[in-house]
Structure formats: C-alpha cells, structure tokens
Design a protein that fits this description.
Blueprint (H helix, E strand, L loop, with lengths): L2 H4 L6 E5 L9 E7 L2 E5 L1 H21 L1
Antiparallel strand pairs: 1-2, 2-3
C-alpha cells in the first residue's frame, strides 16, 4: 500500500516563513484544497496535527 493512499483522508499542510527577515519570524500556513493551496491559520494547523496524532494513538492501541 502506498503511503499517499494510506494518508488520503488527511489534510496536506504546508508552512513557510514570510519573506522579509522580520524578527521574530512570521509564518504562513496553507492547506491543500481541490484548486491548489489556501491560506489558513496556526489554530487550524494545531487542531489538524493534534487530530492526526490522536488517531494514530487510537489505532496503535487497537493493534
């Protein structure tokens, strides 16, 4: 089974520093949508990663 197939139900997230060299560094977060990538915020990314990690722990406990 391909890793991409295995993770098909999860959002693809990206983070990149905002250009300009400001201190502290600022970041832009994006999530993959059918049309490409759309900007999102840190709270959504934090929730999505936490949800993904919880699902992994639940699946690991069932094995």
């Amino acid at each position: 089974m391909s890793r991409l197939t295995h993770l098909a139900g999860f959002a693809q997230l990206r983070v990149a520093p905002v250009k300009g060299g400001k201190d502290p560094a600022a970041f832009v977060y994006t999530v993959r949508v059918p049309e490409g990538f759309s900007e999102t915020n840190y709270q959504f990314v934090k929730w999505a990663v936490g949800d993904f990690n919880r699902m992994g722990k639940t699946a690991g406990a069932a094995v």
